[in-house]
């Protein structure tokens, strides 16, 4: 595959301009897990604690995604 094909492929796969990895992860959680996550923030749990709990449940997220969303510097409209 040549460079032009690779770039064409990358263009097709690019995320919408308001794509937020945290919101994407959140939207894919079960309603129970969404509530648990909301509660965790409300209780003031740290991102590290939340992240390790998410990972132990097999849910992928990252400190960067969580930090960006919670600091309001991500691109989604729901921060
Ligand atoms: Zn966000």
Would you give an account of this structure?
The chain is mainly alpha-helical and about 80 residues long. It has a domain at about 30-79. Helices cover about 60% and strands about 0% of the residues. The model has no long low-confidence stretch (mean pLDDT about 95). The site of zinc ion (ZN) has 7 residues, from helix 2.
Summarize this structure as a short list of keywords or feature phrases.
single chain, elongated, 79 residues, binds zinc ion, mainly alpha
Describe, in short, the structure shown.
The protein is mainly alpha-helical and 79 residues long. It has helices at residues 3-13, 21-27, 31-42, 47-56, 63-70.
Outline the secondary-structure elements:
Blueprint: H1 3-13, H2 21-27, H3 31-42, H4 47-56, H5 63-70
Number of strands: 0
How would a crystallographer describe the biggest sheet?
none
Helical segment tally?
Answer: 5
The portion of residues assigned to helices is 55-70%
* Bound ligands: zinc ion
Shape: elongated
Report the C-alpha radius of gyration, rounded. Answer: 15 Å
- Give helix and strand order, one letter per element, not per position: HHHHH
* Helix-strand makeup class: mainly alpha
Mean of residue pLDDT? 93
The low-confidence parts are: none
Distance between the termini: 40 Å
Strand percentage, roughly?
under 5%
């Amino acid at each position: 595959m040549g460079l032009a094909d690779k770039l064409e492929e990358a263009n097709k796969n690019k995320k919408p301009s308001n794509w937020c990895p945290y919101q994407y992860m959140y939207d894919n959680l079960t309603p129970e897990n969404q509530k648990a996550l909301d509660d965790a923030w409300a209780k003031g749990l740290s991102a590290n604690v939340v992240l390790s709990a998410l990972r132990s449940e097999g849910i992928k997220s990252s400190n960067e995604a969580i930090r960006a969303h919670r600091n309001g510097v991500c691109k989604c409209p729901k921060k």
